[in-house]
């Protein structure tokens, strides 16, 4: 079993730990670290792990083989590089880094240290996305013409004053940076690199200085065009609608990802036929962490690599830059 430490014991760090602790033979949490003493103590008690007062204590512990970074976005690169340099494998939550340069440096550090790097785009592992890719790759949709996608929630309205997710430094682009990046990962996986983006952001109802409404027009190098929306103050919506010359397909992800609320995949064919495809539920958090553990043991690959996540960072940077000046932007992909 891979012995891991959770760095960050808040909402998402707790979700990650709950997905595997006592449920996996591949990975177990043995320690945690957080600047918040109360959160740290509660996490340690709930998951029966050691509590460290600092990240440095975790790095100096020879028993710990890997770190799970569920920290503010601005700390991802710093923490990942330090962990790799200390000989730890690295799992870091999305967004991977704030900038393309930070992402490149993090990948290089993990590569130089011979450590595994995985990025937590858990929604890449949704069964509906795999089924969509099969439809596209198998030619059932014909020539893909256009895609429309959206990931919105009202969670922004519930953030407490001072929460780091409300910071424009931590979440430039607000809803687009935190929610839209999930869908950018889907779109890269399905359609390849983005050639150009044009975006707009607005703050409509949020009491805090963060954008709650964001949208972008996308042009892919393959010729596919697209629209991406992300709202922080609207009821839960998460779908991707693909328009093809032979058929359209709509995948709607469930909320929450629960076996009691099933996702759906609907296909509308050009001949008038319709098909509702069964979409099994997948515990994406559990699966991605087990795949990370397997890769650390030399068995298989991580769900999303640093290089794949860096492409998402590049696309998001272009979207944010476009929204700032209203001009179309081309993503700065690291490796072509």
Entry keywords:
six-stranded parallel sheet; alpha/beta; 336 residues; eight-stranded mixed sheet; 14 strands; globular
Q: Any overview of this molecule?
A:
The chain has 336 residues and is of the alpha/beta class. Helix content is 33%, strand content 26%. Helix 1 (11-20) packs across helix 8 (284-296), helix 4 packs parallel to helix 5 (100-113) and helix 7 packs across helix 9 (306-325).
Question: Quick gist of this model?
Answer:
The chain is an alpha/beta fold and 336 residues long. The protein has helices at 11-20, 37-47, 55-59, 76-85, 100-113, 127-137, 175-191, 284-296, 306-325; strands at 2-7, 27-33, 50-52, 66-69, 89-93, 117-120, 144-152, 194-202, 213-220, 225-231, 237-244, 247-252, 264-269, 274-277. The strands form 2 sheets. The chain has an 8-stranded mixed β-sheet. A 6-stranded parallel β-sheet has the order 3-2-1-4-5-6, with helices on both faces.
Shape: globular
Regions with pLDDT < 50 over 5+ consecutive residues?
none
The major pleated sheet works out as:
8 strands, mixed
Assign the structural class, choosing from mainly alpha, mainly beta, alpha/beta, alpha+beta, or little secondary structure. alpha/beta
Note the run of SSEs as H and E. EHEHEHEHEHEHEHEEEEEEEHH
Secondary structure elements and their pairing?
Blueprint (H helix, E strand, L loop, with lengths): L1 E6 L3 H10 L6 E7 L3 H11 L2 E3 L2 H5 L6 E4 L6 H10 L3 E5 L6 H14 L3 E4 L6 H11 L6 E9 L22 H17 L2 E9 L10 E8 L4 E7 L5 E8 L2 E6 L11 E6 L4 E4 L6 H13 L9 H20 L11
Parallel strand pairs: 1-2, 1-4, 2-3, 4-5, 5-6, 7-10
Antiparallel strand pairs: 7-11, 8-9, 9-10, 11-12, 12-13, 13-14
